[in-house]
Fold this protein.
Amino acid sequence: MRDLAADEPRVVFEVESPSNTTIDEVERLEDFQSTPTVQQTVIVSQTKMRARICTRAGAGWRAETLSGEEAALDLSALECALPFTEIYERVEFEPPAANA
């Protein structure tokens, strides 16, 4: 099996999980963002077309939440954009629950 670990990652992706708590996510983001080479972190929802992208901005981070079919991640650290239609290409979302 090929080793997929990067020595100097520039972008880190994480998929939201129902088992993740807010504290888990905050701790992981802090770990990712403390790595000097990481320029962007992306948390992708698995239940709807939504992602949160954090981009290193000087000594801090700028966060942006994007959603919908027309959205695209601006991965400036990789000099490319990634449309949500490609991220979610084979994902089938459950229909919203009907109000009883």
